[in-house]
Amino acid sequence: MKTVVLVSGARHPVSRRPALTRLEAQAASLAAKLGGTVRGLHAGPSDDQLREALGHGLGEADWLEIEDSVDPVPALIDHLKAAAPDIVIAGRRGEGTGDTGLVPYALAEALGRPIIADVVGVSPGAESGTVSIEQALKKGARRRLVVRLPVVVTIHPLAPPPSPFAFAAARRGTIRHERVAAADPLPAEASSFTERPYRARPKMMRQAGAGQAAEGKAVLVGPTPEEAAERILAFLEDNGIRRYGT
Questions:
Q1: Which residue in 153, 9, 36, 135 sits closest to 88, CA to CA?
Q2: Is-contact 11 19, C-beta < 8 A?
């Protein structure tokens, strides 16, 4: 199984120095535990973030050197088409620069692959050519999916914490450098959106406890274990987290 971990050109929010985001460190550790061939991939003017990712479990990485003002998506698409990895793992978005969080989706569309967002766990599937993915949902719910390869996934903050940074591993890791010429920009699709000045709108305020009083709910003081368990199960079922009555 071939896995590629995307590394963005993130910067520290205070020092503005190149830094690896926590989600990308989690992605590197998750990919290292998955096994097989794991490589990092970064398109940007420097490889500082890649070197840090090597210390979190990546053994090898590819640096596509481009100018800071160049769109990295075309270079990433060409590289991934040639490498043909089974899994592409990315964070939700970079930090500290002009980040939109759309790069994984643009890559998935260009490569013709499905994309699974908010992943907290990945493991080899029971059948050949599949992976088992655990996805985080709203209100703490989880969903397990079996996806056929190849696939693109993005990491959720509730994924396992990253492995501790190992300076020796960062020094041992190898980075393959490739200078990429500026590619033609992606064709822009016709859009029906119009721009207009921002107009401040009043915020909706909600008083604490107002929703409970309106719904006739009360706070239990010193309930018995049975009463507390019943209220917890009822709350989970009312909010659609889990159906206990079926």
A1: 153
A2: yes
What is the SS3 assignment for 168?
helix
Token readout for 84 is 């043909």
Residues 68-125: tens digit of each pLDDT: 888 889 999 999 999 999 999 999 877 766 677 899 999 999 999 999 999 999 999 8
Encoded tokens for 224: 């018995």
Angle between helices 73-83 and 103-111 (to 10 degrees): 50
Dihedral sign, Cα of residue 178, residue 56, residue 141, residue 131: positive
Contact between residue 139 and residue 89 where contact means Cβ atoms under 8 Å apart: no
CA distances from 141 to 133, 134, 146, 234, 236 (A): 14, 10, 17, 15, 10
Contact call for residues 17 and 11 (beta carbons, < 8 A): yes
Task: Return the half-sphere exposure (C-beta side, CA atoms, 13 A cut-off) of residue 106.
Answer: 16
Radius of gyration of the chain (CA): 22
pTM score: 0.71
Neighbours of 169 (CB within 10 A): 17
What's the token pair of residue 213?
A: 């009083």
Quote the CA–CA distance of 204 and 91 in Å, as a whole number. 31
- pLDDT single digits (tens) 159-202: 999 989 988 888 888 999 998 876 655 555 555 677 788 787 77
Helix (H) / strand (E) containing 151: strand 151-155
CA max distance for the chain: 69
